[in-house]
């Protein structure tokens, strides 16, 4: 069995996931853009992996966008995205909250019709290993 650990930015919420991921999607829908503040969300999904909160489960808040299936769980102290279990039993884990490396590459970009226009041509943007001087 594969074990993954994760936490929020402030360290209040800590969890473990045991099992395999079925997919790793980069979602460009407008809901994911809003709740990440970025071009896309990077979420791992599993129908069989088990989530266990090791600490801070009381710090986890879940928001469901009315009239949609869009859900986001986050730490009520630092706002970090955290795993969510959807009604159908699907576990969604924001890739950035994992402390364990994931060897799986993204499966696909989804909802690209909503892709932010400023993401076009990012390969031409300069890169820095740290904050530019």
TrEMBL record:
<dbReference type="GO" id="GO:0046872">
    <property type="term" value="F:metal ion binding"/>
</dbReference>
<dbReference type="InterPro" id="IPR011057">
    <property type="entry name" value="Mss4-like_sf"/>
</dbReference>
<comment type="similarity">
    <text>Belongs to the Gfa family.</text>
</comment>
<dbReference type="Pfam" id="PF04828">
    <property type="entry name" value="GFA"/>
</dbReference>
<dbReference type="GO" id="GO:0016846">
    <property type="term" value="F:carbon-sulfur lyase activity"/>
</dbReference>
<protein>
    <submittedName>
        <fullName>Aldehyde-activating protein</fullName>
    </submittedName>
</protein>
<keyword id="KW-0456">Lyase</keyword>
<keyword id="KW-0862">Zinc</keyword>
<dbReference type="InterPro" id="IPR006913">
    <property type="entry name" value="CENP-V/GFA"/>
</dbReference>
<feature type="domain" description="CENP-V/GFA">
    <location>
        <begin position="4"/>
        <end position="119"/>
    </location>
</feature>
<keyword id="KW-0479">Metal-binding</keyword>
């Amino acid at each position: 069995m594969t074990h993954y650990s994760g936490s929020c930015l402030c360290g209040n919420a800590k969890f473990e996931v045991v099992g395999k991921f079925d997919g790793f999607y980069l979602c460009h829908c407008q809901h994911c853009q809003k709740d990440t503040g970025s071009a896309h969300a990077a979420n791992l999904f599993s129908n069989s992996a088990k989530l266990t909160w090791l600490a801070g489960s009381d710090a986890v808040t879940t928001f469901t966008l009315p009239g949609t299936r869009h859900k986001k769980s986050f730490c009520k102290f630092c706002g970090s995205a955290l795993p969510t279990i959807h009604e159908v039993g699907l576990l969604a884990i924001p890739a950035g909250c994992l402390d364990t490396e994931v060897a799986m590459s993204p499966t696909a970009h989804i909802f690209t019709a909503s892709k932010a226009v400023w993401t076009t041509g990012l390969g031409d943007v300069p890169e820095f290993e740290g904050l530019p001087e």
